[in-house]
Specification:
Radius of gyration: 48 Å
Helix content: 40-55%
Strand order of the largest sheet: 1-4-5
Number of strands: 6
Number of helices: 2
Order of helices and strands: HHEEEEEE
Strand content: 15-25%
Distance between the termini: 154 Å
Shape: elongated
Oligomer: single chain
Length: 188
């Protein structure tokens, strides 16, 4: 006797169309591999960008250091040669003094005239180099930024005004090189 024919064949897979555990595992491994590849590509990109930024930083740092070094060199040269113009303007004064001393039998009038000319040369040289006299007139208001009071004396003028100048002062480029030494009128 034969068995009935309506028996279904046995299958290891369900007929629902769902993937097998092996297929799921293979898909998961492929997915993890894709994620790993993407992460490795991102790491490589970031490393390249980091290298580029590091190179840019080093170049910028070197440029800044070079600029600082050039500025320091310029400042050093400026300081070194700043006196050149000043010294050059004083040379005629020196020449005049030497010429005056070379005259052995000069009269008092010649000496005075030569001294006056030399003093004019010196004043002109100082003014060309922005060295300006501080020589306040009698009665000028006392300025503690430009004057140094040596004493206070009774005088027929307003208090805290200059009575007399004992020694002229000087400014260099609007900065006090030496204050004028003055006597000041005492309060009444």
């Amino acid at each position: 006797m034969s068995e009935p024919q309506n028996k279904q064949p046995e299958h290891n897979q369900p007929l629902t169309g769902a993937p097998s555990p092996e297929e799921l595992e293979a898909a998961q491994a492929a997915n993890e591999f894709d994620e790993l590849s993407a992460a490795q590509a991102e790491v490589a990109t970031l490393q390249a960008k980091n290298t580029e930024l590091n190179e840019r930083y080093l170049r910028a740092k070197a440029d800044a250091e070079n600029a600082r070094r050039r500025a320091d060199d310029e400042i050093a040269k400026s300081r070194k040669f700043a006196l050149e113009s000043f010294a050059e303007s004083l040379l005629p004064v020196m020449d005049s003094l030497e010429a005056g001393l070379a005259v052995k039998e000069a009269t008092l009038e010649q000496l005075r005239e030569g001294t006056e000319v030399t003093l004019k040369q010196l004043k002109a040289a100082l003014e060309r180099n922005k060295v300006i006299q501080i020589d306040p007139a009698a009665g000028a208001k006392f300025d503690p930024h430009q004057h140094q009071a040596i004493s206070m004396v009774p005088a027929d003028q307003d208090a805290n005004t200059v009575v007399s100048v004992l020694q002229k002062g000087y400014l260099i480029a609007e900065r006090v090189l030496r204050p004028a030494l003055v006597t000041v009128a005492a309060p009444k």
